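TOKENISED FOLD:
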Amino acid sequence: MRKSLRDTETIDRFLLGQMCPEEEEAFRVRMLVEGKLHEDVRLQRRAHLVIQLDAIFERLMREGAITF
């Protein structure tokens, strides 16, 4: 598996709270040391938020709460 894909999956696990405490602590330390990883986490967090907002928007559209 490519490093970037592995990092993406690791970041997802971090953002979704799927790491054990020891793994999360090690990941947080890694973010402090690796500036690019910290930036990747920030960007992926934003992507997660966009996906969540899109799901909310779609639900509101289906329910008729929002119309255009």
